[in-house]
Amino acid sequence: MSSEEPLPLYTQNPSDSSSVEIENESPPPSYLEPPISDVPIFFQKAPSNGWSIIFNTRYYRDGCIFVGKDSIFKYEYYRRNGIDDEIKQLHMQGIGIPLFKVEVDTKTSFDSKLVLFKVYTPKPHTSFNIETNYHNFCNVRKAKNAGFTSFIFNFTPHVYRRSEDFQVVLLSHSRIPIHDYVYNDKKYRWIDESVMPFFNNLNQVRYGFKHTKLLPDQESLCDNWNGRYENFFLKNKCFASFFFKSNNHSSIVKEEYYGTEPTEIFGQAASSFKLGKLGLAELRIDDTSNEYFDYITNTNSYATYDSISSLNQEALVKICIATIIKMEKDIIIDISRKQVIKGPVASSSKRK
């Protein structure tokens, strides 16, 4: 943006600006001037009522996660122009600030990477501060095994109530495009639909996943998982059955992979689209029961889907898991393009 052009108002949607010409070799534009384009077909079936989670993360460096498509632009505006009473009011409502800070331990290898999620925790009578208003919410460790990769998520929802800590295990199959986990005794699955030829032919989405809740009697990669690799293949029907053997083609997404109707869509659009041009991924979470929608419409509060305080714990867990899946997908894509970064990368921020 040139110095002669006025900056958009803080409350104005920056994406309402005029379209820009996209050049393949040009650097990413300012977050204050997102390019204009239509929504990819993959996201057009996303629910109309719900949350839009924006990921400004990469597998090899720290990043942030935002709630609402415009929150990252508001945050960049605040960083560049300082704070005023209007911005303070929005910050108090949880708007225009990162939900999560994501820190990657660059001293460990990709196969044992430690990722730390820090969640925003407002302090009474203080202004928003990116350095001090966050506490450790989840740490993730990765372990590669023959046939699958495990990710251990250790959650600390409340700093002073450690009795409420809990753990979630994500298992990713090495050939079949599924990622399974259990939360609150319910089985869930992320399905990578971008392995299908349809995506390559359409060329609108860099990658795309859908989230489904498995039926109680449906087989999961997490069945009989006790944290140990020994005899796991023999006890788990998914690995032992012909359905999941290695001679199945990994680019085929079968109907059997799905449970209930997918309620979440996650992916990164191609560079010819708004968020894809900026390298940002998006997760659309459905307000399945319309409970929060009813709260918004039936109260006089400032409640909105763009507030970080509008998300419950289940959604936060879902966001953390989606982040790790995205990082793994980034690695696969970069390796396929022979652009993977080798060795540790210096982190620009120090761990708190």
Topology overview:
Layout: E1 50-58, E2 61-67, H1 71-81, H2 85-92, E3 100-104, E4 114-120, E5 134-145, E6 148-155, E7 166-173, E8 178-183, E9 186-192, H3 197-202, E10 205-213, H4 232-235, H5 237-240, E11 264-269, H6 274-277, E12 281-286, H7 291-298, H8 313-336
Question: What does this entry show, briefly?
Answer:
By secondary structure, this protein is of the alpha+beta class.
Describe what this molecule looks like in 3D:
The chain is globular and about 60 Å long. The protein has eight helices and twelve strands. With 352 residues, the protein is an alpha+beta fold. A hairpin with a 2-residue loop joins β5 and β6. Mean pLDDT is 79; it is low at 1-36 and 343-352. Helix content is 20%, strand content 26%. It has one domain (35-336).
Task: Using brief descriptors, characterize the structure shown.
single chain; twelve-stranded antiparallel β-barrel; 26% strand; 352 residues; alpha+beta; disordered N terminus
Q: What is the count of distinct domains?
A: 1
Distance between the termini: 34 Å
Order of strands across the main sheet: 1-2-3-4-5-6-7-8-9-10-11-12
Low-confidence stretches: 1-36, 343-352
Helical fraction:
10-25%
Instruction: Write the H/E string, N to C.
Output: EEHHEEEEEEEHEHHEHEHH
Q: Give the number of helices.
A: 8
Largest sheet: 12 strands, antiparallel, barrel
Can you count the beta strands? 12
Shape: globular
Strand content: 25-35%
Task: Tell me the radius of gyration.
Answer: 21 Å
Find the structural class using helix and strand composition.
Answer: alpha+beta
> Mean of residue pLDDT?
79
